[in-house]
Amino acid sequence: MKGFKDFLMRGNLVEIAVGLIIASSFGLVVTAFTNLLLSAISKAFGANPNFNAFEPWGLPVGQFLTALVAFLILAFIVYFFVVKPYQKMRERFIAAEEETTEESVELLREIRDSLRAGR
Q1: d(Cα 27, Cα 78) in Å, to the nearest integer?
Q2: In whole angstroms, how far apart are CA 101 and each of 95, 98, 112?
Q3: What's this model's pTM, rounded to 2 decimal places?
Q4: Which residues contact 34 (CB under 8 A, 6 or more apart)?
Q5: Are 63 and 52 in contact (CB under 8 A)?
Q6: Could you tell me where the DSSP H helices lie in the chain?
Q7: pLDDT 10s per residue in the chain (119 long)?
Q8: What is the CA radius of gyration of the chain?
């Protein structure tokens, strides 16, 4: 029982749970935004980008095409509105910290090398 309690009290488990909750909520937001974009496309071009009725040789290719278009829009949104801003923020705030660490490591290497040469 103690092992189970330790497992539940780990910080990683709580972080993962919070991440999953936020991800599921964010998924709903992105899905709604994708639907909004699809509606805007249908208004602009006068046709709804729904290929479900497209069935060459009796194969349900249209459903796949509709899902593919929705996925590409979703991937575009996530990449340009989540991944790219996150990378820029990470470069801005974490790069300075990593640079300091690299300088410290280099200094420690120089000290080590000078100590070895002095022996």
Answers
A1: 10
A2: 10, 5, 16
A3: 0.48
A4: 70, 73, 74, 77
A5: yes
A6: 2-9, 11-45, 61-78, 84-118
A7: 778 777 767 667 767 877 888 888 887 887 788 778 778 877 877 766 667 777 788 887 888 887 888 788 778 887 888 888 888 887 887 766 666 667 778 888 888 888 888 86
A8: 26
